[in-house]
Every structure is written in structure tokens, then in C-alpha cells.
């Protein structure tokens, strides 16, 4: 009975009957044991159950085990022989070739009734009838269960349960394998259906590829071959581009199908049919790409052509506009707008140059594209004649270049004119500013630079500051002159009127002249005051030295020493001579000081009355006048002190005669700086002779009855504290007077001669003083000549 036809219920029922079982033991040759327990009576279910059990046991063992053989032990100890024999036969048949040995166990009483031949041999395949005690000859006790006299543990119920679990597991495994096989079958069926669908899709794709390829190689290529013009102006190029866009719209549907086919073909699985389709797809891709490149080239040609003609039109229009507005429209000279117009012209020129470069670039690009060969969708050369279009582009480029040259020449000339006019405006504006600066400097000079110091140090500092101020003013004037001259040259170059330029130059000169005159006046005052203070300081020092010399001579004089007395007389004569020379210079400084006091109270220029009153109200030079008065009082005091000392020493003084040229030379220090002051030295300079009465010692006195300093007379007289200086003291004895009379007479004669000599040197000293002042003032000939030349130039203009 095949095992596959058995049901689990039948097998389980048969196993539970324990008609046969596998105890798990092996014979001495290692073959598995199958035990059949013969029932006492033969039942109708005995044979079917035995068949089920034998078939089940054979399914349990592996093929290798069954090939080695199985040992069948039939336990017939409780059953009848008839039943045992039937079970043995059935089991032997069921085992078939797998039954290696059949052992039948009979009870011991069975052998008492049988007679066996001792000489009979056992045949292979026949059952062996043994007692239980002899069973150990074939199977070890350890391999036999308790039922057969062995000691092997065997629980039939447990064995059944275990095999039920094993069978259940195998059943599940079989179910899983069946499901897997079912899945494989379903997958194979789906794959077959999918292959059929793919085959149908491949057929449809091949048809689509063929349609796309045929359309591109046919109608599309023919339509593109019919379009070979690029236009000759903006409107024609726009019309051609519009037609080309219509052609692209017609090709858009084919491009869509082409892209869809590519996507579908690329998504197909790799099969032999798909490989053939992919080769067709590659050809379609090549054809479409070639046609698209040609279509793109045509579109680029039309775009470049349209852009080129638009740039040409724009360039010609803008050049005409700029030429009309900024070149021809700016013939009227608006100086204030020249810089703005120049900037506009430069910006317009820059824009036009950029536009012209783009135009030339686009023209050359269009010419190069038209010169390139054209290929169809299969890569074959297509003859397209663009000769006329290339010649047209070249002619337009040549015309543009000629227009550019003419336009640039006109623009450069206009730019030069505008630059000159702009520079004229700038120069004259800056010159106006220079005039304003000079006027401001003039106001500053009148307000802040009118003071005179009280001593030589302050005056020197003021003089240096004033010189710096004058240098600044001179630099401003020179700067303005350069600007005016530059504007004049540019006006001559542009052929413009010179009237406004001449007016501006006149204003500049006028501002400079008034500033220069006032500045020179102030500088002259500073320098003359500096000469005055230095000279007075020197005179005071010399008078102090003479006073000290007379005082020391008087202290060292001894009446008994004749030699010392004679030496003292000689020294007194020298002192008197130095006194007379010094008093001449002092007299000039006194007159100069009085003149300075008067001059410093006057304004620097012809100011308005209110300005003069304000300046006098501020008392800007009152301190300087007071300082001059103090210096005059100081030198007068020292002169009087010197005369007093000489009188005490026993000397007499005479009036010192001065020429009138001393006063004129002093006054000339404040004369106009345009011409040098001259000191006239005439031969008629009068030197007052010593009167004959001077030789009389008793009655002759030399005194001064006029004031100490007088500008109304030409003589300077020194007046001691006493009315006259007595050459002989009243306390001296008559002997001393008698012995000293000849000597005093000689002293008076010597004094008169000294006075006459000093008077003759008066003019020379005056001249030296004037030269010193002029050198300090700096009125040298080159400066004077420059100023004269400027005045002459102004008058000539």
C-alpha cells in the first residue's frame, strides 16, 4: 500500500493497536528491528492495520537504511500458529526485498510437539523459528525491549507522540513547499503575461520610432530646407523669426513623442527584442538630435540677425540724436552748463562706443555663423547659399565704421570746446575767489594787523607775521593772475570776447594794489619803528657809557697831579667829541620819534570815517605812541644827565648846529615806496662858526634857551639842569683858575673845532640812517622795478 494514500487517522489507529512497532534496537549486524506482535485471534482489522503499519515503518526509514536491510521479529508466543503464520507471510510480503531476516518467536511448548531434522540447513529469506532464549544469538539483550526479554526502554505511547510531532512538522514543511511551488507557478504565469505585454509594447514602440524617424527625415527636413533667409532689416528678421517659431511649434508634438518613446524604451527590461528596439531608438535619437541642432542653429541665426539689425538701427538713431542735441545744439556758449554738457557728451560717447562694439561683435558673429556648413538630420551636407546676406552684413559694418569715425571726430572737437569753456568757467570762478580772498585779506589786515609793538622784539615778531601775511597775499594774487591769464588764452583759442576777462583782471589788480599799498605802509611803519627802537636803545646805552666815563674820570681826578689833570682834559675833549656826534644822531631819532607818533595816529589808508573812528576808538597804536614818548623821555633824561655830569666835571658845552637836510632825510623815510627817498647833500650846508666871544673864559657861556627837542629849528641844543655849564668851579681857587686858563682856552677851541667837524658829518650820518631804514624795509631796486612795471602794465591796459 503506498504511503501517500494512507490517512493519518488510519496510521494513528494502527499504531495505537500496537500490532507492530519499532523499538529502536538493532541486530548484531546493525540492522533496525521491526517487531510484530501476533494477536491471539485474527481480527478483520488485523490484516489492514498490519499493512498500514508495515507501509508506515518503511516510509520512516531512509533509502540507505532500507537497502542495508530490515530485521522482522514476529512475537507469536500468545497467538495461534495459524494466526502467526498468516502474519509472518503478510509481513514478509509487505517488506519485500527490504526484509533481510525474519525471526519468529514461539513459546517453548511449541517445540515439544515438533520434530526437526538436525541436518536440515536454513535458507536465506525463510523465517527462523526461535525461542525467546535463543533470540540473543541474533540480537543483543540491550537492543531488545522488555517484552522480548531485553532491557531496552521503550514507551510505545511516547514513541507515537514523538512521531506525531515529527509528522506534523513534516506536514507543515510539505505545506510550505507546496505553497512555494504554487507561488513559483503564479510568478511564472505573471512573467509569461508580462512578457506578452512587453512584446506588445515593443511592437507599439517600434511603430512609434518608425513614425518619428520618417517624419523628421521627410516633412520636417523639407520644411527646414525651404527656410534659408536671414532678412535685411529689423522687420524682415522679425518676420522670419516668427515663421521659425511656427515651425518649432509644429515640431513640438514630434519632440514630445520622441521624449516619450525614449523614456519607454529606456524603462524596458533587457531582452533580445528590447536590444533590437534600442538600436532603432539610437538611430531615432541621432536623427532627432541632428534635426534639433539644425533647428537650433537656424534659430540662433535669426536671433543674431534680429539683434544685429536692431543694434544697427539703435546706433544710427542715437548717433543722430547725440549729434543734434549735444554737438550742433551746444553752439551757444553757456559757461555754467559747459561741465554738465561735457559730462553728458562723455557718457553718451561711452554708451555709443559700447553699442558700436556690440554691433560689430554681433555682425561678425552673424557672418561667421552664415559661413559655417549646414548638415541635415543624417549628417549630410546641405547646400545653402548665404552669400548675399554675408555681403549685406559686411556693407553695414563698413557703413557703421565710417559713421563712427565721422561722429567721433565731431564729438572730440565738441569735447575739446566744452573742456576749454569749462576750464574758462573754472579759471574765472577761481579768479573771482582770489579777488574775494584778497578783499578778505584786506579787511583782515585793517582789523587785525594795524598794531605796532612797544619794543624791538615785539615789532620783529609782528614784522615776520606781516611778511608771512604779505607772502600769502602775493601767492593769492599770483594764483589769480595765472587763472586770469589761462582763461584769457583759452578765450583767444575759442575766439570768445575778452571784455569780462579784462574786467576781472582789473578787479584783481585793484584788490591787489590796495592790499599791497596798505601792507607796504604797515611794513614800513613796523620797520621804521624797529629802527627807531634799536637806535634809541643804542643811544641810551652810549649815553650811559659816557655818563659812567665822566663819573669815573671825576672820581679819579686829583688837583695836585698836573699830569693827571692834563690827561683828564684830553679825555674830556674826547668825551665832548663823542657827545656831539651822539647828540646829532639823538636829534635825528628824536625828530623821527615825533614823526612816528604823528604817523601812527593816522589810518593806514583812506578808510571811511566810521572805520577810522572805530580804529581810533580801539586805541590800536596808542600803546606804541606811548612807548615812543617814553623812549624819547628816556633819551632826553640821559642827555640832560650827561650834561650835568660834564658840568660837574668842569666842562662847558656849545649848541650843536645841524643842517636842514637831517629833517628832510628823516621825513623821507615815510615817503612813497614807489620811488627811493633821496638825501640831498649840498655844499651850502651851513656850519655855525664858533663865536669869538667863546675864547673869553670869564664872560662866555654856551647855553640853550630853546626847548630840548624842537622840530621848528635846525639845531639841537642840550640844556643841563643849570642854565649853562661853567667850565671853572666857583670853589676853585684863583690859582687853579689862573693855571688852568690857557688849558681851558685850548679846550674851548678844540671843542668848537670838534663841533664844526661833527656838523660837517651830519649829512653823511643822515644818509647812513636812511640807507639802514631802506635796507630794513627791503625797498630794493628789483622789487621797485617790478611794481613800476605792474603799474605801467595796468595803465596801458
UniProtKB/TrEMBL annotation:
Low complexity bias (residue ranges): 657-685
Chain residue ranges for the region called Disordered: 657-687, 778-797
Key word Repeat present: yes
Annotated TM spans: none
Keyword terms: Repeat
SESTD1-like spectrin repeats region domain sequence ranges: 303-405
InterPro entries documented for this protein: Spectrin_SESTD1
GO molecular function, one term: phosphatidylinositol-4,5-bisphosphate binding
Pfam families found in the cross-reference section: Spectrin_SESTD1
Repeat keyword on record: yes
Protein's name in the database: SEC14 domain and spectrin repeat-containing protein 1-B
Organism of provenance: Ceratina calcarata
Amino acid at each position: 500500500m503506498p504511503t501517500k494514500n494512507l490517512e493519518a487517522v488510519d496510521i494513528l489507529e494502527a499504531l495505537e493497536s500496537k500490532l507492530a512497532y519499532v523499538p529502536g534496537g538493532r541486530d548484531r549486524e546493525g540492522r533496525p528491528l521491526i517487531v510484530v506482535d501476533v494477536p491471539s485471534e485474527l481480527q478483520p482489522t488485523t490484516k489492514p492495520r498490519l499493512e498500514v503499519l508495515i507501509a508506515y515503518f518503511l516510509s520512516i526509514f531512509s533509502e540507505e537504511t532500507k537497502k542495508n536491510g530490515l530485521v522482522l521479529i514476529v512475537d507469536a508466543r500468545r497467538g495461534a500458529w495459524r494466526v502467526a503464520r498468516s502474519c509472518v507471510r503478510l509481513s514478509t510480503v509487505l517488506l519485500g526485498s527490504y526484509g533481510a531476516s525474519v525471526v519468529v518467536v514461539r513459546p517453548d511448548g511449541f517445540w515439544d510437539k515438533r520434530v526437526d531434522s538436525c541436518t536440515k540447513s536454513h535458507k536465506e529469506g525463510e523465517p527462523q523459528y526461535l525461542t525467546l532464549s535463543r533470540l540473543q544469538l541474533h540480537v543483543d539483550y540491550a537492543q531488545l525491549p522488555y517484552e522480548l526479554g531485553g532491557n531496552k526502554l521503550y514507551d510505545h505511547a511516547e514513541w507515537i507522540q514523538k512521531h506525531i510531532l515529527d509528522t506534523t512538522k513534516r506536514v507543515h514543511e510539505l505545506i510550505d513547499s507546496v505553497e512555494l511551488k504554487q507561488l513559483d507557478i503564479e510568478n511564472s504565469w505573471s512573467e509569461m503575461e508580462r512578457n506578452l505585454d512587453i512584446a506588445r509594447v515593443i511592437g507599439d514602440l517600434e511603430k512609434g520610432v518608425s513614425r518619428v524617424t520618417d517624419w523628421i527625415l521627410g516633412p520636417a527636413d523639407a520644411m527646414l530646407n525651404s527656410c534659408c533667409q536671414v532678412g535685411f532689416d529689423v522687420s524682415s528678421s522679425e518676420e522670419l523669426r516668427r515663421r521659425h517659431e511656427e515651425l518649432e511649434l509644429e515640431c513640438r508634438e514630434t519632440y514630445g513623442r520622441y521624449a516619450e518613446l525614449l523614456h519607454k524604451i529606456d524603462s524596458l527590461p533587457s531582452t533580445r527584442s528590447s536590444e533590437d528596439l534600442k538600436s532603432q531608438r539610437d538611430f531615432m535619437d541621432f536623427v532627432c538630435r541632428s534635426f534639433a541642432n539644425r533647428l537650433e542653429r537656424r534659430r540662433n541665426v535669426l536671433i543674431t540677425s534680429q539683434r544685429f539689425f536692431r543694434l544697427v538701427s539703435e546706433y544710427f538713431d542715437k548717433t543722430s540724436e547725440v549729434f543734434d542735441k549735444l554737438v550742433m545744439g551746444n553752439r551757444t556758449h553757456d559757461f555754467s552748463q559747459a561741465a554738465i554738457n561735457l559730462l553728458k557728451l562723455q557718457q553718451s560717447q561711452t554708451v555709443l562706443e559700447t553699442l558700436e562694439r556690440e554691433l560689430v561683435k554681433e555682425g561678425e558673429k552673424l557672418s561667421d555663423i552664415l559661413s559655417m556648413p549646414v548638415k541635415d538630420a543624417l549628417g549630410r551636407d546641405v547646400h545653402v547659399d548665404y552669400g548675399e546676406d554675408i555681403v549685406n552684413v559686411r556693407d553695414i559694418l563698413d557703413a557703421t565704421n565710417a559713421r563712427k569715425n565721422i561722429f567721433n571726430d565731431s564729438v572730440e572737437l565738441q569735447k575739446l570746446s566744452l573742456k576749454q569753456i569749462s576750464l574758462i568757467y573754472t579759471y574765472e570762478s577761481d579768479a573771482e575767489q582770489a579777488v574775494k580772498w584778497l578783499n578778505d585779506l584786506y579787511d583782515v589786515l585793517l582789523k587785525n594787523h594795524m598794531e605796532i609793538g612797544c619794543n624791538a622784539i615785539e615789532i620783529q615778531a609782528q614784522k615776520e607775521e606781516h611778511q608771512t601775511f604779505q607772502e600769502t597775499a602775493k601767492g593769492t594774487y599770483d594764483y589769480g593772475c595765472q587763472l586770469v591769464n589761462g582763461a584769457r588764452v583759452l578765450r583767444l583759442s575759442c575766439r570768445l570776447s575778452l571784455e569780462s576777462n579784462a574786467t576781472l583782471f582789473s578787479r584783481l589788480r585793484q584788490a591787489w594794489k590796495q592790499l599791497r599799498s596798505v601792507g607796504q605802509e604797515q611794513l614800513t611803519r613796523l620797520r621804521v619803528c624797529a629802527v627807531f627802537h634799536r637806535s634809541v636803545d643804542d643811544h641810551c646805552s652810549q649815553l650811559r657809557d659816557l655818563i659812567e666815563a665822566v663819573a669815573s674820570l671825576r672820581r679819579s681826578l686829583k688837583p695836585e697831579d698836573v699830569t693827571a689833570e692834563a690827561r683828564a682834559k684830553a679825555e674830556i675833549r674826547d668825551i665832548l667829541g663823542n657827545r656831539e656826534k651822539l647828540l646829532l644822531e639823538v636829534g635825528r631819532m628824536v625828530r623821527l620819534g615825533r614823526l612816528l607818533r604823528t604817523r601812527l595816529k593816522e589810518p593806514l589808508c583812506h578808510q571811511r570815517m566810521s572805520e577810522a573812528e572805530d580804529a581810533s576808538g580801539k586805541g590800536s597804536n596808542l600803546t606804541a605812541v606811548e612807548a615812543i614818548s617814553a623812549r624819547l623821555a628816556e633819551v632826553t633824561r640821559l642827555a640832560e644827565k650827561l650834561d650835568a655830569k660834564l658840568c660837574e666835571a668842569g666842562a662847558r658845552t656849545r649848541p650843536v648846529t645841524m643842517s636842514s637836510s637831517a629833517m628832510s632825510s628823516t621825513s623821507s623815510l615815510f615817503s612813497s615806496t614807489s620811488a627811493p627817498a633821496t638825501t640831498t647833500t649840498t655844499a651850502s650846508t651851513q656850519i655855525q662858526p664858533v663865536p669869538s666871544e667863546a675864547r673869553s673864559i670869564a664872560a662866555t657861556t654856551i647855553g640853550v634857551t630853546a626847548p630840548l627837542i624842537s622840530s621848528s629849528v635846525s639845531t639841537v641844543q642840550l640844556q643841563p639842569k643849570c642854565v649853562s655849564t661853567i667850565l671853572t668851579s666857583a670853589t676853585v681857587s684863583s690859582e687853579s683858575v689862573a693855571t688852568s686858563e690857557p688849558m681851558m682856552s685850548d679846550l674851548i677851541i678844540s671843542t668848537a673845532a670838534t663841533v664844526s667837524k661833527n656838523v660837517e658829518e651830519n649829512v653823511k650820518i643822515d644818509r647812513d640812517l636812511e640807507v639802514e631804514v631802506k635796507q630794513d624795509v627791503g625797498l630794493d631796486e628789483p622789487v621797485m622795478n617790478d611794481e613800476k612795471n605792474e603799474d605801467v602794465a595796468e595803465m596801458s591796459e
